[in-house]
TrEMBL record:
Protein name: Transferase hexapeptide repeat family protein
Species for this entry: Rufibacter sediminis
Region (Disordered): 176-198
Transmembrane helix recorded as keyword: no
Family annotation (Gene3D superfamilies): Hexapeptide repeat proteins
This protein's UniProt keywords: Transferase
InterPro entries xrefs: Hexapep, Transf_Hexapept/Carb_Anhydrase, Trimer_LpxA-like_sf
PANTHER family: DYNACTIN SUBUNIT P25, GAMMA CARBONIC ANHYDRASE-LIKE 1, MITOCHONDRIAL-RELATED
Any one Gene Ontology molecular-function term assigned to this protein's record: transferase activity
């Protein structure tokens, strides 16, 4: 659902895909090839939300702010399932892990990786290429070239998803049994541990 609020109508590029069960409200700008998953709440009622090209905001994420604040997701930001971004700036090609919470006025530097369930306190400035974990957060190491390559590949999978959803996602009635000729889906991407052989 897309909602106007206080005269602000969301701007969504035609190549982006906002799932019908997501909610986008007010002063929101969504760029090219962005994927917004079901259950996501992108709430630009009190401030501006900018989601640049090739980002993804996955299922049940919340993006919001205190009044008068801009939330900015820079190009290729990857926001994992259930994460909360509140009044923060997420740098280019950053991964925010599942159920992480990024608080007000935080700046996550480009090409950083924020672990699942991480809590980043208000006003923190995370340098580029940081690996951030824990509650409260700690920077534990630098992101190396292999890690950012893995992250970028994962985001590229999501960059294809809006086009695939526009082409093939549609409501349907469920089948009552599994067809014998049901095809297996391709495994085109590995977890970090699979990639490392662990």
């Amino acid at each position: 659902m897309i909602y106007e609020f206080n005269g602000y109508i969301p701007v969504v590029h035609e190549s982006a895909f906002v799932h019908p069960q997501a909610t986008v409200t007010g002063n929101v700008i969504i760029g090219k090839n962005v994927y917004i998953g079901p259950g996501a709440a992108i709430r630009g009622d009190w401030g501006e939300i900018i989601i640049e090209d090739n980002c993804n905001v996955q299922e049940n994420c919340t993006i919001h702010m205190f009044p008068g604040t801009t939330v900015h997701l820079k190009e290729m930001a990857h926001i994992g399932h259930g994460a909360i971004i509140h009044g923060a700036t997420i740098g280019r090609n950053v991964l925010v892990g599942m159920n992480a919470v990024i608080m007000d006025r935080v700046e996550i530097g480009d090409e950083s990786i924020v672990g699942a369930l991480c809590f980043v306190r208000a006003d923190e400035k995370i340098p580029p290429r940081s690996v951030v974990v824990g509650n409260p957060h700690k920077i534990v190491k630098e992101v190396n070239d292999e890690m950012i390559s893995w992250k970028t590949e994962g985001t590229q999978v999501y960059m294809q998803l809006p086009q695939d959803c526009h082409a093939s996602l549609k409501p349907c009635e469920p089948l009552r049994k599994v067809p014998q000729d049901r095809q297996k889906q391709a495994a085109g991407y590995q977890t970090w541990n699979e990639r490392k052989g662990e």
